[in-house]
Amino acid sequence: MDMKRVLVTGGAGFIGSHLVDALMDGGHSVTVVDNLSTGKIENIQRLLPQRGFAFEKRDLAEPVGRDLLENCSVVFHLAANADVRAGTANPRVHFDQNIQVTYNLLEGVRQTDTEDFIFTSTSTVYGDAQTIPGLRALSAGLSLRGLEARM
Q1: Residue 151 to residues 3, 30, 70: CA-CA distances in angstroms?
Q2: In this predicted structure, what is the pLDDT of residue 95?
Q3: Which helix (H) or strand (E) covers residue 7, if one does?
Q4: What domains sit in the chain, N to C, each tagged with a CATH number?
Q5: Is residue 131 scored above 70 in pLDDT?
Q6: How many CA atoms are closer than 13 Å to the CA of 93, on its beta-carbon side?
Q7: Cα–Cα distance, 97 to 93 (Å, whole number)
């Protein structure tokens, strides 16, 4: 597996920080961008002094410049407003923090040589489940090898 320069938005969040751990363990150079509105610096604190790791506290609601994506091979976009109630009360919150941020990143990727843009979502897109499936039902047909094969 070739070492890549990877950008992880929302990398100080719970899921993002675990992804960052796996990428660092895989020998990749990782830059985390997070506004720390819900993410916690404690989730990535131990990585701050490591070579090949960088953290930038930044709000991606503003256009993304080449400085952030220059020489970046892969973008993992995990940054989003996770507070469903806030977005329900004020839909502009979801627009600004989810749609506008994603658009800004995609525009930045379009203008650079970034090879891959990997977008994640949440289970809220499926609505309220009537029943919660067991782990066996969720894992049917899924492969954890997919991410590794792409890298």
Answers
A1: 9, 13, 18
A2: 87
A3: strand 5-9
A4: 5-123+130-150 (3.40.50.720)
A5: no
A6: 12
A7: 6
